[in-house]
Task: structure prediction
Amino acid sequence: MALTGKQVRQLRSLAHHLNPVIIVGKGDVNDGTVEQANEALEAHELVKCSVLDTSSLEAREAAQELAERCQAEVVQVIGRKFSLYRLSQRKDIEHIKLV
Result:
């Protein structure tokens, strides 16, 4: 699911105020990180992640790998932080309405 330019701008503005909930550290993107990201994406659809200095991956590399393993879209990468989006299958949450 490729995002349009308008959708990316909308998601970037929503992600700006979020705090990182997924931390990529010394273990890089492992199964535990992927599981945690999947749970967060199902609950919130849009999550911000952070890459620590101890990680051997750059933020863009970590974002691409985590997005591939979670079937998510990379919204934005700035410095050591990045945002991911995936439409949730849950019915009990308020979904982000993309333009």
